[in-house]
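Hi X.,

You mentioned you wanted examples for the new student's onboarding notes, showing what a folding record looks like when two proteins sit in one file. Here is a clean example. The first protein comes first, with its sequence line followed by its structure tokens.
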Amino acid sequence: MIEMILVLAVFVVLSAVAVPTLSGFGERMKLGQGQRDVERELQMARLKAVTANRPMRVLFNCPSAGQYRRVEVLGSALDDAADRCSETKYPILPPDKNPLTRPNFDGSIRYLPLNVSFGAASGLEFAPDGTVMYQNSGVWIDVPDPDGTAVTLTKTNTSVVASISVNHLGKIQAVQLPY
């Protein structure tokens, strides 16, 4: 009986040590999933821009915080319209089959995991040659640093930050999270 109580006591102590570690691991897993999803959407936008020979954007916090959407650049004032992320006004499937009318390549609204948010960047634009620009205070500019971090994701209530680097040539790479 004493041996069983000792084994149980050791198990309780080990469990008490492991629970905070496993809890933090779960939070990092959610952040990593968000990072992979955003990275895939960026890859898809770049692929669509190159194959369709049309600029594509991925807009962050669009239409609201924690959401993002891939949209085709129309080449007009509508590109910067406040309702550009509206799936009602700009549906995923184009209203007609004419490839000359636009937009034809808008994606659906995607969601970050709960309590994960974007950093300062509000969007990335991929040109038909695969190069990239990012939006800073409403202005589209070239990515300044060839190895710069373009997108950051932060998990609320933790100090863990995930990032995705996008260089000026459009190479997209998720930066390894510390585990």
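Then the second protein repeats the pattern, sequence line and then tokens:
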Amino acid sequence: MRIDVLTIFPGMFDGVLGASILKRAIAAKRLTVRVHDLRRWSPDRKHRKVDDRPYGGGPGMVMRPEPFFAAVAALKTKAARGATPRVVLLTPQGTRLSQPVVRRLARAKHLILLCGHYEGVDERVREGLADEELSIGDYVLTGGELPAMVLLDAVARFVPGVLGHPESAHDESFSDSLLEYPQYTRPRVFRRKAVPDVLLSGDAKAIAAWRQSAAETRTRERRPDLLRAS
């Protein structure tokens, strides 16, 4: 899978791509991630500006459409044969990112992530370039870089070979509209709290039943909206 990121702050991605699972996935060539400075495609060759004042007045600056369109056109020429890149704009106005959305995007061969900034991006980017718009929550961030990192991490978990165990990405919170069941490890007793006996029984069916029941109980207590949605 290939993921291209367009941003005016490419250095923000160094940490998240240089550590943990994403670093290993890239090193093992399970995942190809390229972070591009959007200013390379600025029509202003001298100052490399990518923003301008909003028509109609108002505070702040708006990102111009030309750099996004030029950059995406250039990246699409580098797409692998048979791979149609899917262009995703990270914006608070987008569809809420969820596990089903992550699963769907993970099946794509090539994603291009657009990171807005300032007061947002020119509407023509939404209308004529983005295949979809995604949000990571009902709040406003300084730009689309942090949401892009969240999306990168979430999608990478479903790319074959990225996680050590093939079932790890499927046996966790939100995978079946449930929060994950409680997890325990050694020591068996800690501060007078013991691991449930069923987890020590070796009975696979009993353990599975306990985990299902615990997941349903936890979801009912903490996120009943997930049960209603399912």
